[in-house]
Design a protein that fits this description.
Structural class: mainly beta
Order of helices and strands: HEEEEEEEEEEEE
Number of strands: 12
Distance between the termini: 54 Å
């Protein structure tokens, strides 16, 4: 094949990929309290009082969120931590979530730009060598490309995820959705929803 033909093929392939990405609808975060449940559709009241209709896909993942403690972060736990970098290179946790075992590997890695705090980061990985000290818990979070030392204080909010079902979707329950797609009619659709259990309000 000529050099021109190869170049033309590469350009066509690049255009096809960029077009596919462009066609993917944008998603947004949603949170609020369930007001009504009708089949797989939820009427949710946001914090500002606005009502939103959210439809769950047929195989949507429903994750219950319960309160946890420092003692629940054990060797080998798969955790995620929104945190703020410290001068010594460690990360001070703003919040920690402990994944269900079936969610191991979710979001593995370390990223800047977590919106929960100024200069926030998000680190997901396996907990190694948790050590309790006067400042709380120091734990190495190991991910595929490296590791970060996370400091979890006694006041850091910690929650645990458990795979649930539609029975937890009840009026009054707090919910959060990381990625909801807005439909042309103004409603939303999602394949995953976090639901607070026993009064927990998921972020």
């Amino acid at each position: 094949m000529s050099r021109i033909g190869i170049l033309a093929g590469a350009l066509v392939a690049a255009f096809a990929v960029s077009s596919a990405v462009a066609q993917q609808p944008p998603t947004q975060r949603l949170s609020g309290t369930i007001d009504k449940v009708t089949g797989n559709a939820l009427l949710v009241k946001a914090k500002d009082g606005a009502e939103q209709t959210i439809t769950l896909t047929d195989k949507a993942l429903i994750v219950g969120v319960t309160k946890a403690s420092l003692a629940d972060i054990k060797e080998g736990s798969y955790i995620g931590s929104g945190a703020v970098p410290q001068a010594d290179g460690s990360q001070k946790a703003v919040e920690v979530h402990i994944f269900a075992e079936t969610q191991r590997g979710t979001g593995d890695g370390h990223r800047d730009g977590w919106p929960g705090a100024t200069n926030g980061t998000m680190t997901n990985g396996e907990a190694r060598n948790p050590v309790t000290g006067v400042d709380g818990l120091a734990v190495m979070v190991k991910y595929k490309d490296g590791e970060k030392k996370i400091i979890v204080t006694p006041s850091t909010p910690i929650v645990q995820y458990q795979i649930s079902d539609a029975s937890v979707l009840k009026p009054g329950a707090a919910i959060s959705i990381v990625a909801a797609t807005k439909k042309p009619d103004g409603t939303f659709e999602t394949g995953r929803i976090n639901v607070g259990l026993n009064g927990v309000v998921p972020n």
